[in-house]
Every structure is written in structure tokens, then in C-alpha cells.
């Protein structure tokens, strides 16, 4: 499993902690996804649905920040009190690559997309949620300085992710949260979770069982019959080309593949001949909502990244959006089903089929 590059879709049901009131220092336009827009329609009647998947923030407009807790947000790494105080005093860099590498103490926070609401006077306002690991709640209640640290960290992350400059003249409304905190999902780098975290263990088990080898059935043998090979079980059983007749491909090449819809699943069929059972056991397959990464050392590496632009995909894989089995058409499909992903490898036929 490639832990450094894997992500997991974490399910969150945040519990309200406290609410902070700020204001926008400059006008801004925040982008929101279709999923976020749909979630807004299920919230309070005071919520104003965004136009064209954007929310305009006016200068001076009130901005509410809900500080919330959830156990599925990665916890901060273990550290001494001196290291924690150094981070709280601004002596550490909060760059994600440095932090996740273990070079500094840090606090992961999941920042929501903005949503609209109204204040007590009925004027439009903006709401963000900053969700931290539940283990931080008790320290936040005990230490005002730590509460201020989490508040400032949340403000910085909102500014960085949504390009909204926020005032540090803060108010503390006497409410646990501005509006209800609804369940949501978030993509989180797997490397941020400690080894013993339930989500890390769950993904490890899923990765271990993701690839299933399809064993060919042994033919009935008699003294008068010539040895024949039976067709493997599974969806690859109709592929009759013998991979042993293929010209061996060079090391670490990009294998050919095609995709098709099979019911409510998307099947990606990878042509990977000349792979041994040992090499299959050493192979890694990572499935993300918009990406599939296959590595079969020393033969094949395949990275289908649908988050790239159309031009980048066309340059990498060729094809056009008018070709039904092109990667560009695959990009137009739904996100991959990460939780339900399965793979079947038929070594006899030199085929790997990934169901997403």
C-alpha cells in the first residue's frame, strides 16, 4: 500500500464546540461544489443557495466560524509540551508536506466550504466549519491559550483555502454553532492518521484484500486426453488470447487498458501479460475518487488521474471525448466508488479488471 500518496474519504458527524464571529476585510468570491450546494438545500430556510457555484463575500460582511470536533479528523502527533508550546507561539511552519513528514508538531483541521446564513438582524452572513480531532476538546476547555491557538489556526486555514481575508477583531456569540452541523465527507491524506487509528486499519485491510487472483480451473485428466487449459472464472473468461504468445513488454511501462460500464459499476480492464503470481502479490493498487494507480514491479505502472485537465489527459492517453472508451469520456463519469472497489486478476489471461 502506498501510504504516502493515498487518501481516504472520511465520514464526519461534527459535534459543536464554540462559535467565533469575524468579518471580511476585503471582497471575495468563494467557489463551492455541487455536493455542497445540494447540502445547503437541506439546511435551514434562512440559507441562501449560491449562484453558479460561487458565494460572493462583501467587505465588512459577518463571518461565523464554528469550531467543532470529530474523531475521524486526524489527531496531532505525539509531542512534548515544549514542542506544542513552540507551535502555539508561531515557531513552526504549518506547510502540509513538512508537517505530514513528521518534521514538526501540527494540528490537522478540516475546513468546510462556505455557506450562507443570516445574523440576528436578518443580514446575510457567511459560515465556515473548522473541525478538529475530538481529543483536543478537553485541552481547549482547560487552556484559553490553546483555544485561541485553534481559533487562529482555523482563521488561517480559511484564508488559505478560500482566499478570504478575515478580521482578528473577534466576537464570541453565546451559541455552540451558527446553524446545524450536518454530516459530511472529506478526502484526507492517509499519512496523517496514526497506525492505530481505526480508519488507517480499515484501509490497510481493504487494500490487502482488494486484488483477488482468479485461479484457472484444472481440466479433467485422462491418459488419452491432451492437457488443455480451462478458462478462468470471472468476467475475463471470454478473453481467449494467450498472453504467452505476446512479445514481452519493457520494464515499468504503461499498460494498455480499456473501460466500460457494467451495470452500475465501471470496469477498467488492464492488459498486463507476463506477470507472475509473486509479482501480483507485490503489486499495489490505490483507488481514489478520481484516480486509479497501479504498480506491478518490475513491469507496469499505470496512473489514471481524472483530476487533470482535458489537454493533459489527451496528451497522456490520446483519444477524444467522442470516443466512448476514451479516458476523456471516463472523466465525464461519476466518481469512483472507493469503498466498494474490487479487483480481479487473471494471471492466465494477463488481465486485471478493476471494478469502481
Give the arrangement of secondary structure elements:
Blueprint: E1 7-12, E2 15-23, E3 28-31, H1 34-41, E4 54-57, E5 62-69, H2 81-88, H3 96-100, E6 110-111, E7 115-118, E8 124-132, H4 137-142, H5 144-162, E9 184-189, H6 198-208, E10 211-213, E11 257-262, E12 265-271, H7 277-281, E13 284-288, E14 291-296, E15 300-305, H8 310-317, H9 327-331, E16 342-346, E17 351-355
Parallel strand pairs: 5-8, 10-16
Antiparallel strand pairs: 1-9, 2-5, 3-4, 6-8, 7-8, 11-12, 12-17, 13-14, 14-15, 16-17
How would you sum up this structure, described in words?
The chain is an alpha+beta fold and 356 residues long. The protein has 9 helices and 17 strands. It has helices at 34-41, 81-88, 96-100, 137-142, 144-162, 198-208, 277-281, 310-317, 327-331, and strands spanning 7-12, 15-23, 28-31, 54-57, 62-69, 110-111, 115-118, 124-132, 184-189, 211-213, 257-262, 265-271, 284-288, 291-296, 300-305, 342-346, 351-355. The strands form 5 sheets. Strands 2, 5, 6, 7 and 8 form a 5-stranded mixed beta sheet that branches. Strands 10-16-17-12-11 form a 5-stranded mixed beta sheet, with no helix packed on it. Strand 7 and strand 8 form a beta hairpin. The longest helix is centred in the middle third of the chain and has 19 residues, at 144-162. The protein is elongated, with a radius of gyration of 25 Å. The two termini are 18 Å apart. Mean pLDDT is 76; it is low at 34-49, 93-101 and 217-251.
Amino acid at each position: 500500500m502506498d501510504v504516502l500518496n493515498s487518501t481516504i474519504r472520511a465520514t464526519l458527524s461534527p459535534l459543536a464546540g464554540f462559535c467565533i464571529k469575524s468579518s471580511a476585510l476585503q471582497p471575495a468570491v468563494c467557489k463551492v461544489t455541487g455536493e455542497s450546494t445540494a447540502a445547503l438545500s437541506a439546511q435551514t430556510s434562512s440559507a441562501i443557495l449560491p449562484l453558479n457555484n460561487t458565494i460572493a463575500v462583501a467587505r465588512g460582511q459577518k463571518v461565523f466560524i464554528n469550531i467543532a470536533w470529530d474523531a475521524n479528523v486526524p489527531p496531532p502527533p505525539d509531542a512534548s509540551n515544549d514542542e506544542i508550546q513552540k507551535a502555539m507561539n508561531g515557531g513552526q511552519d504549518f506547510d502540509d508536506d513538512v508537517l505530514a513528514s513528521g518534521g514538526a508538531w501540527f494540528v490537522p483541521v478540516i475546513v468546510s466550504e462556505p455557506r450562507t446564513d443570516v445574523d440576528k438582524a436578518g443580514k446575510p452572513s457567511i459560515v465556515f466549519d473548522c473541525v478538529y480531532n475530538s481529543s483536543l476538546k478537553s485541552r481547549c476547555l482547560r487552556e484559553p491559550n490553546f483555544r485561541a491557538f485553534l481559533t487562529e489556526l482555523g482563521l488561517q486555514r480559511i484564508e488559505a483555502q478560500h482566499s478570504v481575508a478575515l478580521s482578528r477583531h473577534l466576537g464570541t456569540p453565546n451559541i455552540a454553532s451558527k446553524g446545524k452541523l450536518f454530516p459530511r465527507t472529506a478526502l484526507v491524506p492517509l499519512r496523517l492518521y496514526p497506525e492505530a487509528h481505526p480508519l488507517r486499519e480499515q484501509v490497510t485491510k481493504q487494500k490487502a484484500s482488494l486484488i483477488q487472483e482468479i485461479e484457472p480451473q484444472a481440466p479433467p485428466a485422462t491418459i488419452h486426453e491432451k492437457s488443455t487449459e480451462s478458462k478462468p472464472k470471472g468476467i475475463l473468461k471470454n478473453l481467449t488470447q494467450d498472453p504467452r504468445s505476446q512479445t514481452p513488454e519493457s520494464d515499468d511501462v504503461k499498460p494498455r487498458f480499456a473501460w466500460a460500464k457494467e451495470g452500475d459499476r465501471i470496469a477498467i480492464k488492464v492488459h498486463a501479460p507476463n506477470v507472475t503470481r509473486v509479482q501480483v502479490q507485490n503489486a499495489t493498487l490505490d483507488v481514489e475518487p478520481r484516480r486509479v494507480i497501479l504498480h506491478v514491479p518490475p513491469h507496469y505502472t499505470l496512473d489514471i488521474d481524472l483530476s487533470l485537465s482535458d489537454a493533459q489527459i489527451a496528451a497522456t492517453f490520446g483519444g477524444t471525448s467522442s470516443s466512448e472508451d476514451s479516458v476523456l469520456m471516463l472523466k465525464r463519469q461519476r466518481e469512483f466508488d472507493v469503498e466498494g472497489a474490487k479487483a480481479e486478476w487473471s494471471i492466465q489471461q494477463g488481465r486485471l479488471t478493476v471494478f469502481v
